[in-house]
């Protein structure tokens, strides 16, 4: 994990946020940060932020995605993605034979036809 200088101290849009860490993106001017954000309820939210470097601007948030409260489920999916990306042949063959998951519509909504 890498931190990018004092950017975190300079960009204090929301007091009380805690940056857990920063990962390099695919490009030199791209980073990902994981941030814990306080909420009025007792449970904090966790966000994944895509940040870019802009000349004359510095680091800025391009996109924010709230992470699900089920972090154990997210970890399991990320481990599966890592095994697929690492080229594990046996795991890749098993995954290729599995069927696609279809998301059900939210409660009270119908599947579009």
Structure write-up:
- The protein is α+β, with helices and mostly antiparallel strands and 113 residues long.
- The chain has helices spanning 7-10, 71-85, 89-97, and strands at residues 18-24, 30-37, 45-54, 58-66.
- It has a domain at 7-66.
- The chain has a four-stranded antiparallel beta sheet, with no helix packed on it.
- β2 and β3 form a beta hairpin.
- It starts with 6 loop residues before the first helix and ends in a 16-residue tail after the last helix.
- Residues 5-12 have low confidence and may be disordered.
Quick recap:
The protein is of the alpha+beta class and 113 residues long. Helix content is 25%, strand content 30%.
**If strands are numbered along the chain, what order do they take across the biggest sheet?**
1-2-3-4
- Series of H and E elements: HEEEEHH
The low-confidence parts are 5-12
Estimate the global geometry from the Cα principal axes: extended
**Whole-angstrom Rg:** 18 Å
Mean pLDDT score: 80
Report the biggest beta sheet as strand number plus sense, adding barrel if it closes.
Answer: 4 strands, antiparallel
Pick out its properties.
113 residues, 25% helix, four-stranded antiparallel sheet, 4 strands, alpha+beta
């Amino acid at each position: 994990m890498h931190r990018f200088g004092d950017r975190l101290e300079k960009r204090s849009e929301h007091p009380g946020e805690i940056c857990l860490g920063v990962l390099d993106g695919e490009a030199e001017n791209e980073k990902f940060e994981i941030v814990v954000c306080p909420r009025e309820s007792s449970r904090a939210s966790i966000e994944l932020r895509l940040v870019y470097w802009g000349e004359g601007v510095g680091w800025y948030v391009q996109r924010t995605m709230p992470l699900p409260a089920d972090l154990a489920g997210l970890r399991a999916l990320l481990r599966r993605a890592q095994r697929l990306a690492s080229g594990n042949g046996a795991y890749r063959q098993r995954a290729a034979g599995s069927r696609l998951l279809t998301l059900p519509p939210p409660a009270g909504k119908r599947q579009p036809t």
